[in-house]
Known about the structure:
The complex is a heterodimer of chains A (661) and B (147).
Chain A: E1 4-9, H1 21-29, E2 34-40, H2 46-58, E3 63-68, H3 71-84, E4 92-96, H4 98-102, H5 108-127, E5 136-138, E6 142-146, H6 150-161, E7 165-169, E8 184-185, E9 190-191, H7 192-205, E10 209-212, E11 215-223, E12 226-233, H8 248-252, E13 258-259, E14 268-269, E15 272-273, E16 285-286, H9 292-296, H10 301-305, E17 318-324, E18 326-329, E19 333-335, E20 352-354, H11 355-362, E21 383-390, H12 407-421, E22 426-431, H13 441-450, E23 455-458, E24 461-467, E25 470-477, E26 482-488, E27 490-495, E28 497-499, H14 503-510, E29 537-539, H15 549-567, E30 571-573, E31 579-581, H16 591-595, E32 601-610, E33 613-622, H17 632-636, E34 642-644, H18 649-660
Parallel strand pairs in A: 1-2, 1-3, 3-4, 6-7, 6-18, 7-10, 18-29, 20-27, 21-22, 21-27, 22-23
Antiparallel strand pairs in A: 5-30, 8-9, 11-12, 12-17, 13-14, 15-16, 19-28, 24-25, 25-26, 31-34, 32-33
Helix pairs in contact in A: 1-5, 2-3, 5-18, 6-7, 6-15, 11-12, 12-13
Chain B: E1 13-18, H1 22-31, E2 40-45, H2 53-61, E3 66-71, H3 82-100, E4 107-111, H4 117-134
Parallel strand pairs in B: 1-2, 1-3, 3-4
Helix pairs in contact in B: 1-4
Amino acid sequence: MQRIGVFVCWCGSNIAATVDVAAVAEAAKLEPAVAFATDYQYMCSESGQSMIKDAVKEHNLTGIVIASCSPRMHETTFRKTAQAAGLNPYMVEIANLREQCSWVHKNKEEATEKAIVLMRTAVAKLTLNQPLIAGESSVTKRALVIGGGIAGIQTALDIADAGYEVDIVEKKPTIGGKMAQLDKTFPTLDCAACILTPKMVDVATNDKITIYSYSEVEEVKGFVGNFTAKIRRKARYVDEELCTGCGACTEKCPSKKNPNEFNMGLDNRTAIYIPFAQAVPKVPVIDAKNCIKFKTGKCGLCATVCPSNAIKYDQEDTFVEENYGAIVVATGFNPIKLDEFGELGYGQIPDVITSLEYERLMNAAGPTKGHVLRPSDGKKPKKIVFVQCVGSRGQSCREKGYCSKICCMYTAKHAILTKDHYPEMDVDVFYIDVRTPGKNYDEFYRRAVEEYDVNYIKGQVGKIYEENGKVMVQGSDMLGNKQLTVEADLVVLATAIEPDETARSIGTMLTASMDTNDFFTEAHAKLRPVESPTAGIYLSGVCQGPKDVPETVSQAGAAASKVIGLLAKDKLVGNPCVAGSNPLLCNGCGQCANVCPYGAISYVEEEVRGPGVREVRRYAVVNEAVCQGCGACTVTCPSGAMDLKGFTNRQIMAEVDAICK
Amino acid sequence: MQVNENKEFRPRIVAFCCNWCSYVGADLAGSSRMEYPADVKIIRVPCSCRVNPMFILRAFERGADGVILCGCHPGDCHYSTGNYYARRRMTMLFSMLDYLGIEKERTRVEWVSAAEGAKFAATMNEFIDTVKNLGENRKLRDLRCKE
Lengths: 661, 147
């Protein structure tokens, strides 16, 4: 017979205000298996925990029920307490009286009644608990970073700095990501390339870091500490080892009319190209769709001019398989497509562009060499209108419900830089709200308004159309309480950002959960912001939510420190709540192995001895290091031989009974 | 908790929530202070695929008026495929229960992600209302378990 102790927590007033905690403790005393019950203000506090330890010793308890907050909050805390008191850490059950009782109910009588049922349920389960001992598994001391933008770069550098090997997988031909496309960064107006490209070079020269550019993660297997990833290295038709990056091929390529992705399609590139001058690795890639050699079989000019014979038209996709202890997701973002925003004229009116396009226009290495010139006629505009919140903070299905966070600041930056270069230019900004929380951010915005005389208009834009060679912007001025039509030469749309299109498939591959906007979910919104709920998966940068560069870099560092913390361990203590089969009941039918997502089940033939049984039998064996404890096999098993430790059939049945009593 | 002439009918509802999405969603409903009736009690399971049809039969046998199973959205299962198994099993079980006289409305599978606290609360409110309207469940009940 178990001797159970029940400890009811007030959680200050969080539980005690809605639940009569003393009544719950009194009710507990009536349970046959309960030897001791009490309530206390904060069970998780130092004194609460020592109270538990003392009670375990004094009353010779065999298990404890804590009726407190969610087990996701303090289950580990109380397991440690139990262990310190000499109990098996798995002889602990939590009744969730806070998140699932006191916080969701208002009626004290009903909440108390429910709390008693929840306490009884936990006691019923604990009565059937068995001490469990966790297995150990090894840790592969190597990390995988998916995405080579500033988030991935910073994470990789920080992990490598601690002495661990890191691989970066980047789907584009070069690392650098979106930050490489930026001209200046707010609020200090540092040149983005000047601060980013040295980091890119650091990554390239760091002997702990391997860059798989133009590659994608195809498959991930395993679990924390022991992942195996299959990486597809897409054929770039250029041998990375032989190429010296001289660029002779890109100069001679006759297929010159291909939209340049790096410059947002504002100019053209050749079919064999290096995305930008500081690309890492500085190795060209052949865009096979537009290459004359691939289309017609004739040409081959790049191979002829290449001094190092690096062009390989017959190159094929190759695969690399590597083991990792931890995986960092740094897949970043893209501006949303504006196809559904027909009223804004993007795509129809050449002088309506997005902010990222404007960023390229302002960049000295961009299509206009840094001169702000209209895409339609190449003339310098006299008036520029910026429109904020395009696709952000909306209610309709074409818009995003969230704030993209960076647009207020980069629009202020664009306005300041524009006025700085061309003081005679008129700059209007349509905004809903200006949001500038951040160090020196509001000061920066105020400079735009006060020093640079940028005209901020509070109101949304309803329509953009062309009239007499001018772009007409129709919007409202809420402070002036009137409708406006502004005549502009160039309109810049601050487009909402969304997670990269590969995020969803990567999330599925890693079984990392995501929210409805396809941003990765963190393990805890406040306390574990850089970890995914899936062990061993970490989040860096915008893949978790909109962020600017400083925030991304700090999150990247945080993710790296979590990875280092994991890789520094030699052994990971596993989850002992794994499946196990009873050889006396198992008939080796093979159903369980069919449903196991981890391939943890195999079969052995052995002599089985039991009451009335003595024969050679085939039965299932679970590899406890591989089993993740989902329980799919337990339900599939036709003979009831398979059970899940910590969540046994009898335990769950007992819970059901206690609830329905 | 029982039908009483003077008291409003309070159904007994068992909710199975998977540890990774729905239980977290239920916690989020709590930390966002979204109210739902106290009639529902949650059992935490590692995955929706851990729910044996026997548990649901047992619940009805012991006097439950409704059973709801919550798991991760299809494609989001922490264990990749568990919720697909759960979905198949429950489809079979619920149609059998319907045949036995336990109305389809008393049983439900719902996908609630860790970010969907509001959905969890709304689902529970709606499910409890549905079961309340159906009244007490008398089928499958083991009379020995009743007072």
